[in-house]
Amino acid sequence: MSEQNRPSPTTGSAPRERLLLTAGQLFYTEGIRAIGMDRLLSEANVARATFYRHFASKDELAATYIQGQDLEIRTRFRSAQELTDEPTGLLRAVVIGISETVCGPGFRGCPFINAAVEYPADGSPIHQAVDAHRTWFHATLLDLFIAAGHPEPEKAARRLVLLRDGAMIGGYLGTPDESITSLRAGLDELLAPCEAEKNR
Fold this sequence. Notes:
By secondary structure, this protein is an all-alpha fold. 74% of the residues lie in helices and 0% in strands. The protein has helices at residues 15-30, 37-44, 48-54, 58-83, 87-102, 111-118, 125-147, 153-173, 176-198. α4 (58-83) packs parallel to α7 (125-147) and α7 (125-147) packs across α8. It is elongated and about 65 Å long.
């Protein structure tokens, strides 16, 4: 369940795909507001009229980029579910995916947190796309902690979301290895009641 920005666009791909690939790379590495339309269109090799055939505005493109990031993570989670349906194993898979992202090349923080900082207003479609991802992520963790038999699943899910956020921020601003070590230790603490219950 790692979070990675998209690869560089290819000139032979369709205009909409090139726009999304280019936007994904630029928005993640430099920020959404920092990228002007002229540069986006130039690097995607797309005419302005073509852009507006696919997106009503740059904000709509940015929201679609965030939705794409969300879809990639949900797809990775479904892939993990195909390997195991054991809830603690899936929770560990989530943390492994986060660890791979934080310690991976080109990591520049969480795309969702980065976007939310740039677009804090609740009414922004970009902020709403971030909220949709975080709502799904929390609900997914909650279901897993319930299935694992945690005595306080809601509290555990909220704490793991915060641990994930901290690992993302700390991994970018500080030392990735330390952030991941803390994240994994935090998950071990959260799973301890579940393990104790299974061993009774």
